[in-house]
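Folding Query — how this chain folds
Tokens — whole-number codes for backbone shape
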Amino acid sequence: MVEWRITPGLTPYLRAVSDMEARAKAIARGEADEQIWLLEHPALYTAGSSAQIQDLRDPDRFPVYETRRGGQYTYHGPGQRVVYVMLDLTRRGRDLRAFVETLEAWVIDTLAEFNLTGHIRPGRVGIWIERPDRPRAADGATAEDKIAAIGIRMHKWVSFHGLSINVEPELDHFAGIVPCGISNHGVTSLVDLGLPVTMNDLDVALHRTFARHFPDV
């Protein structure tokens, strides 16, 4: 069974990492159930294994934490739902690429609960929303903003870290970094898109769509 854990308030980042690491190790030893952990962090930046220092535009704005998850710089803060995913890929198929694709599909399916169409774009990590209300790109393409980020780490084929979805964060806080190394696109949120969605609404949608992509094993 997969345990769902929701932590109210703001969880310090290092405490969350410590808890995740301990849980992933316990899952790998067969001593704990898989877990989905929903929380929020205080405002901070994280640097993934591919982070480039030039993408940290304002290093003094918020605390910066180095992390060995995949990806580049990301922002976490109030109003953003962080979803830490601790699942055992030994039981679910040892295919890391397929696992990431399933995470992406889960986010897209969750956004569809609010009548939003999320997109995956080659060369751009995360989930994207088309913005026909914005000026088109130089090549004539429809403008797009990022609404969700994904970055995972593995311990003996147990995942941890996971994804984040913007509900109503301060979008200006993303200006201190080049999010995921992508500088020519913006960032959006459910509320920025005009949807009166609460954190609880998103949690319900995440839970409702989860089993379509990660059935019990």
